[in-house]
Amino acid sequence: MINIHSLELHVGKYYTMITVPEGAIEHIRNLSEVAAALTKIGDEMRFVGGCVRGWLHGETPKDIDLHIKSTPEVAMALYSALGIDFYTTGLQHGTITLRINGVSYEVTSCRRDVATDGRHAQVEYTTDWMADLARRDLTINSMSLGFNGELLDPYQGRKDLKAGHVRFVGEAFDRIREDYLRILRFFRFLGRYAEFDFNAAPLIDEHQSYCLSYLADGLKQISRERVLMELLGIFKGDHADEILELMGDLGISKAIGLPTARLKNLRIAMAATDDPIIRLAAYMDEVSKIGQEHPFIRDLPLSKDDRRTITYLTASINGPKPLIEYQRRIFVDQESRDMVRAYALMMGQADEADCLEDWEIPKLPINGNDVKPFAKRPTDFPIILGHVRHMFFQSDYKLTAGECMAIVAQCSMLNA
């Protein structure tokens, strides 16, 4: 294992020694052989971006990103020599994914932007840590951590993280014009890290507000797939309602086609679930016409299941129901348990949703094969079986098979 105390300390006002986060220790062990080999060729491996932000905020990051000074070609030769499994799916971005002890690590060579078009950048490789951090979006995402606990933080991201401030790196106008998706990323991170104390300073300073609003139309060139991804992240956040209100005020919602809603239904749903699809449905319910898919939803590249859920939830919203009504929908009407639970959650009924999840659906003592001989016409079958289900439900699921068959016979005679 690499001796982290032997790593060269950098000199400069942007470097600070901190205690190595506990969550980073396992990854330092996993990467020790690679890091030692890089040190021998005059390079270094450093954690960067979201994982550093997460550890400093007491979170467990899902993705572990690192940056190095070596070019991808040099790095791949080194990994091959060490026998390390790696994948080149991100090679066009200078990223190589290492697979060590069942963990994936995305290692990217330091880059600087040469040209940008509002979404993608032309880059060149560099050996300058600072240049690599300068091309990132937010100060809280522009920190680099050495394996010895040396934090490189040129934009005061750690200070912003503690204070609950979300700021662009350098000039907001420039950062947004480089990639307009950063507008939505800004609001997603604002909902996640900002301090929502409305008696204190505004969540967004005047200059950033101006830049976000002025450049909002740039979002029209962003793919709907990326818009959807960021939007669901916003809806999942603890402060989705406040963030969406801010987005409406600054013209961000209009730029992506998101209609303005009163947020009442969203706030009800937020009290019961953090599921972004259910929250999106609650938001859209206030602006959707019953039985019609709203153009905004129709334009989103949703999965079939998510689209089906939103369609179901916005089809006939008429308030919360007692638990027994939800059970009736599942047993008698044969509606999906997941859909009915989603409805209850959208109505803010977390307890009812929990009961439905644990509920063992009763079994009808007869089946379709028992009913078929009594159905004179194909259309009779679902009517008879549905009536039996209803009567079994009404009896608190106590009817016997014989009693159910008597109901079947009676229905058959009435339909003759």
Summary tags:
single chain, alpha+beta, Beta Polymerase, domain 2, cca-adding enzyme, domain 2, 4 domains, elongated
Secondary structure: elements and pairs:
Elements: E1 15-17, H1 22-30, H2 32-40, E2 46-48, H3 50-56, E3 64-68, H4 72-82, E4 85-90, E5 95-100, E6 103-109, E7 111-116, E8 121-125, H5 129-134, E9 144-146, E10 150-152, H6 157-163, H7 172-178, H8 182-193, H9 206-214, H10 224-236, H11 240-249, H12 252-256, H13 264-270, H14 276-285, H15 295-298, H16 304-313, H17 323-331, H18 337-346, H19 350-358, H20 368-371, H21 380-394, H22 401-414
Helix pairs in contact: 2-4, 8-10, 8-11, 10-14, 13-14, 14-16, 14-18, 18-19, 21-22
Q: Ranges with pLDDT <50 over ≥5 residues?
A: 1-7
Q: How many alpha or pi helices?
A: 22
Q: What percentage of amino acids are in beta strands?
A: 5-15%
Please give the order of strands in the largest beta sheet: 1-10-9-2-3-6-5-4
Principal-axis shape: elongated
Overall mean pLDDT: 93
The first-level CATH class name of the largest domain? Alpha Beta
